[in-house]
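Holo model, 6-O-phosphono-beta-D-fructofuranose. Inputs:
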Amino acid sequence: MSDATRRPDLSGRTLEACLEPAIAEGGDKSAAARTVLALATACIGISDLIALGPLAGSLGAVTGGANADGDEQKELDVQANDLILAALAGTATAFYASEEEDAIMTLDPAGSIAVAVDPLDGSSNIDANVSIGTIFSVMPASPDGASASFFRPGRDQLAAGYVIYGPHTALVLTIGDGVGLFILDPASRQFVKARTNLAIPVSTREYAINASNYRHWTNPIRLFIDDCIAGSEGPRGRDFNMRWVASLVAETHRIFSRGGVFLYPADNRPGYQSGRLRLIYEAAPIAFLAEQAGGAATDGTAPILDKIPTTLHERTPLIFGSLEKVNRITGYHVDPAFERSVSPLFEQRGLFRA
Ligand code: F6P
Ligand code: MN
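Output:
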């Protein structure tokens, strides 16, 4: 194959070209699309740094600082946040919220957009050369100011996406009309459309959870996982597979590729009463993408996109992915004896459990 045939055909497929119609619409839609382009540019810079690994310095080194939620800040967390802030200068971004910033920042007071980001998700994986990512959420700025721009339901998002830095760098994006997949072409340094209308398969046999927390979980989560582990000998009557990368973006990308469900539930450890993940810049954008791809996202009882945050770094339990599985897990929360109605064999489930 010659170099010429191996090069992707970029005509009409670059991110910029794909966002042109939205930019032409004017108003918030246009401002959001331009902001997405700026975020994508920042992510190309982050991707460059990550590709260098240790040659770029000690990216996984702890800076000595901690973010507002008490997590250790790594060198790459800080550099990614700086790159995003630099890229947003000159856009219509009025307010900026980041995992790495204690408070909401005002960038352009006349701007019409509010941006929330997790600049570097999965940072425990930096030194291990395992996939990590950037997550972003784009809201209309509220006339009532900074807090009101973010303390609102995730359904108000104009755009949401993540960039995964893996064997290739990919952007998964929604501007509210389905989900598109863009791959970073290293030669042209452009994100190029690879797929449109990504859809999460409705049913699945794969789940992702940090099972080391089993003893801290609530009953509905334990029951759901117990039934998965029991496999073909349990009430579900079939076997399941488990994965845990410890990078939310990597789990999300797998779920977008082949289905599955992700759980980071609330648990009984101190500080984990609302789970681990942050509502504004982790759960809400992932939930928007999941719903746009035909999946679902819940905290166990309420859809993530209906939740209204009251603090910037608020956590939420997060369960998302294939619709059938998310509905089933909600069922376990509403009625812990959920399976009884599903499998007559296990009508006596109480007899099998302490
Ligand atoms: O951002 C938080 C995060 O790193 C996610 O990317 C990931 O899903 C989770 O935390 C990993 O949690 P744990 O350390 O419990 O495995
Ligand atoms: Mn994160």
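The first helix runs from residue 3 to 6. The first strand starts at residue 62 and ends at 66.
Archived with the compound record.
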